[in-house]
Amino acid sequence: MQPDDIDLWAIHPGGRAVLDTCERALGLAPHALASSRAVLRHYGNMSSPTILFVMDHLLEKAGADRTLKGLSLGFGPGVTLEGILWHRGGDHG
């Protein structure tokens, strides 16, 4: 799987530098992390629950009628990384 195969990127916004580094390392377009940046701007880093706010923001913007692949990444102290590749089918009405 390549970065272009992912529709939605839910990166835990531990800080602006984390998001900038992920964007560069994964070769993402600036809009790919718009939800992560919006959550960071409006709420700050709320620790673990922040990723759920990012996913909610992403899914709300995407609408319910599309099938989507997403990748969520969270970072912890030291060199801790947790990730999940997920799929949401369309027509959830």
TrEMBL record:
Q: Which InterPro entries does this one have?
A: Chalcone/stilbene_synt_C, Polyketide_synthase_type-III, Thiolase-like
Which ranges does the record mark as transmembrane? none
Q: What name has this protein been given in UniProt?
A: Chalcone/stilbene synthase C-terminal domain-containing protein
Q: Which organism is it from?
A: Candidatus Entotheonella gemina
Which terms under GO biological process does the entry name? Answer: polyketide biosynthetic process
* SUPFAM superfamilies per record: Thiolase-like
Hey, which family's this protein in? Belongs to the thiolase-like superfamily. Chalcone/stilbene synthases family.
Ranges for domain Chalcone/stilbene synthase C-terminal come to: 8-87
Query: A single Gene Ontology molecular function, please?
Result: acyltransferase activity, transferring groups other than amino-acyl groups
User: Could you tell me which Pfam families the record lists for this protein?
Assistant: Chal_sti_synt_C
List the keywords (alphabetical): Transferase
Q: Does the keyword Transmembrane apply?
A: no
